[in-house]
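Escalated from tier 1: guanosine-5'-diphosphate holo job.
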Amino acid sequence: MSFTLAIVGRPNVGKSTLFNRLVGKRLALVDDQPGVTRDRREGDARLFDLHFRVFDTAGLEDVTDDSLEARMRRQTEAAIEQADAALFLVDARAGVTPLDAHFADLMRRARTPVLLAANKCEGKAGEPGLYEAFGLGLGEPIALSAEHGLGMDELYDFLRPLI
Ligand code: GDP
Ligand code: MG
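Tier 2 regenerated the structure:
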C-alpha cells in the first residue's frame, strides 16, 4: 500500500496548485465514487526521490445544498481518516480566517500527522500571515509557495521519515 497525503484547507488557499505541482502530468483519472471521494482528485505525486499518493479535496467549491463548513468538515474528516498524513494549508496573504481556525481544531485532534503550511509566501506579502499561523496550535508552519515551488524542502523533511 502506498503512502497517501491529503491536502486540506478552505477554498482558494492553493490546494489544487500544490496538487498539480506534486502530480505534474501523472494526474490520475478522478474516481467516480459516491460520497466525499467524488469531490476528491487523487494522483501519483513525486517530491525529489519520494513517491506517494496525494488527495486534493477539490469539491468544496461545488454548489450543493450543504454549507461550505459542512462540506469542509466532511472532506477534512474523511481525509484525516483515510490518509497517512495531512497537509493543512492556509493563505499567508489573506491571513488566518475564522474558518481556518475552526478547522485547525479538527486538525489538532487528528490521529494522522499534520503539517501546517502557510501558502503564497513568496515575497513579503505573506509574512504577517505566516506569523499568524503560529497561533493555530499546530506547531511551526512551513512557508510555502505552491506557485513558485518554495518550501518543498520542508515538505520533504516532514514526509521523509513517514514514508
Ligand atoms: P484551492 O481552492 O485551495 O484549490 O486553491 P487554488 O489552487 O485553486 O488557488 C487559488 C488561487 O490562489 C489561484 O488564483 C492560484 O493561482 C493562487 N495561488 C496558489 N498558490 C499560490 C502561491 O503560492 N502564491 C500566490 N501568490 N498565489 C497562489
Ligand atoms: Mg482546488
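The radius of gyration is 15 Å.
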